[in-house]
Write a structure and sequence with these properties.
alpha/beta, Rossmann fold, Hypothetical Protein Yjia, Chain: A,domain 2, 2 domains, 7-stranded parallel β-sheet, 7-stranded antiparallel β-sheet, 32% helix, globular, binds guanosine-5'-triphosphate, hydrolase, nucleotide-binding, nucleotide binding
């Protein structure tokens, strides 16, 4: 067999950012990018309408969005070519465009197939070095998610570090119960509280990934998750949209996540719409978008079938609503 030629540059560190839907991955990504290290970002979104790119505070970051499925299954095949292209561009550039890569998985991805690509694809394994798997967990919702979804448990099992978020919304009982569960699931994995009002731990990216991982051959999870994407043709008033979204959350226990970028009546800039774990967050102002990209969009991720939700969305948003399933 012909030997694989040795790469002429050292491997580029990769941070794999994972965690269940709405647990704070993009929020953490923004905090990581603020450290000034030049970073290429690969974002995987489950919904067909990508949203996360608009939630990044640094818009000058080299960014690839792989949407419409999970990196662990539907779009797994897209990861290797993406990383190959990034590396080849890096090799060819005199002024290196980035010093590390951060991959943000979708909230329903199991990390194992992604690790399989990174660690077992020979070309990639020689050119990238997995630095750490960071897993975010939203304290108030995490126990329920660990009970219900094997993907959430897998995200904990493969983590090099656990980052506990939404501590400001959690009571002491939830914190203690989660600590107990993590002690069972991942007793050797360090965990940190990631408070929105406190500095990001400075050593977050300096740890080393564990040296040995026992990956199953051809691990292929089967998901029960589906998504609906909705394009808004009009700019609703916030009170009107809020009432609709609260009613959908209350009426659809299968609805796990809502996120989107929406234009509201009377405002020129778009806002980020976020809901997770039955909680609807206040809309957050976003910078203006580029011309030609002025429609609002919302993504709904459910566990199970989307039929009932699709019917209610059509009723709530009218016959002009453009709803797509994926
Ligand atoms: N109160 C509070 N809100 C938080 C915290 N961390 C994140 N959020 C909010 O939680 C919502 C979801 O956060 P994201 O960072 O988008 O979560 P995500 O894991 O990237 O979501 P998906 O990519 O959809 O899985 C946003 O409205 C955040 O502002 C936290 O520690 N406390």
């Amino acid at each position: 067999m012909k030997p694989t030629p040795k790469p002429s540059f050292p491997p580029i560190p990769v941070i794999l950012l994972t965690g269940f839907l709405g647990s704070g991955k993009t929020t953490l990504l923004n905090r990581l990018l603020a450290d000034g290290v030049k970073t290429a970002v690969v974002i995987n979104e489950f919904g067909a309408e990508p949203v996360d790119q608009d939630l990044l505070q640094r818009q000058d970051t080299p960014l690839t969005v792989l949407s419409g499925g999970c990196l662990c299954c539907q779009v797994k095949g897209a990861l290797a070519p993406t990383l190959k292209n990034l590396r080849m561009a890096w090799d060819a550039a005199a002024d290196k465009p980035f010093e590390r890569v951060v991959i943000e998985t979708s909230g329903v991805a199991s990390p194992e197939p992604i690790l399989d690509t990174l660690l077992r694809e020979r070309w990639l394994a020689g050119r990238y070095r997995l630095q750490a798997v960071l897993t975010t967990l939203a304290i108030p919702a995490a126990l329920d998610q660990l009970d219900r979804f094997p993907e959430a448990a897998a995200q904990v099992a493969w983590a090099d570090r656990l980052l506990l978020t939404h501590a400001d919304l959690a009571d002491a009982g939830q914190q203690t119960a989660l600590a107990g569960r993590l002690q069972q699931l991942a007793p050797a994995t360090p965990s940190d509280l990631l408070r929105p009002d406190a500095a990001t731990p400075s050593d977050l990216c300096s740890g080393n990934a564990r040296r040995f991982r026992l990956l199953h051959a051809n691990a292929q999870p089967t998901h029960e998750f589906r998504s609906l994407s909705l394009r808004l043709t009009q700019a609703p008033a916030w009170t009107q949209l809020e009432a609709v979204l609260l009613a959908l959350l209350a009426g659809h226990p299968e609805l796990l996540r809502i996120k989107g970028v929406v234009y509201l009546a009377g405002r020129t800039e778009p806002v980020a719409i976020q809901a997770a774990g039955q909680r609807l967050y206040p809309p957050a102002a976003l910078p203006p978008r580029h011309e030609g990209d002025l429609y609002g969009r919302l993504v709904f991720i459910v566990s199970g079938t989307t039929d009932a939700l699709a019917a209610d969305l059509a009723t709530a948003f009218g016959s002009g609503a453009d709803i797509r399933a994926s």
